[in-house]
Structure formats: C-alpha cells, structure tokens
Specification:
single chain; Hydrophobic Seed Protein
C-alpha cells in the first residue's frame, strides 16, 4: 500500500510541474510575417539585389527592425517576389551587422 501511495504522490507532483507548461503551451514563432515586413521596410535599401555591400549603422531604423530576430527565419518567410528583389545573404548578414 505504501508503494502505491508514493507512486500516486509522485505522479501528482510531476503533473503539477508539467501542467503549467502545457497550459502556457503556444510558443511565439521565431518570427512573423509582420516582423519580415518590418525588416524589409526598414532594411530594403541594404538588401535589394545589386545594392553595394553596405552595412547599416547600428543605431539605424534598420537595425532596430532587425534586432532580436532570427534573420534566417525572416528569409524563410520571403515570398517569390521578395526573393527575386532581395539578396537573402544580405538579410541574413543583418543579424551580425546590427549586433
């Protein structure tokens, strides 16, 4: 009987530790379409195909838009037209250039 009681108590404790995480559950994606649009709006000048390789100033609106975002995620969200117009490597390089 004691082993069953210990097992039940252990199950209750483990459930209490895990359950809050399940309720919170939904994680914010690494980036959103809104994030992508914001980066392109503020950094398009630096990422457009054919633009001379120029790094945005660290305190620019471009770096503020890129701050804290995974630029590979931003690239993954580009549609066909955006891929044709923007240098994907330049977008990814914003992560390093702005940090």
């Amino acid at each position: 009987m004691k082993h069953q009681t210990v097992a039940v108590l252990l199950l209750i404790v483990v459930s209490a530790l895990v359950s809050p995480h399940l309720v919170i559950g939904v994680k914010r994606p690494r980036c959103t379409v809104e994030d992508k649009n914001n980066v392109l709006a503020h950094c398009g000048h630096y990422t457009i195909h054919g633009h001379p390789k120029e790094v945005p100033p660290k305190h620019s609106s471009c770096c503020k838009a890129a701050e804290g975002h995974d630029m590979q995620c931003i690239v993954d969200l580009l549609n066909v037209t955006e891929r044709k117009n923007h240098d994907q490597r330049a977008i990814i390089d914003l992560e390093t250039a702005c940090n």
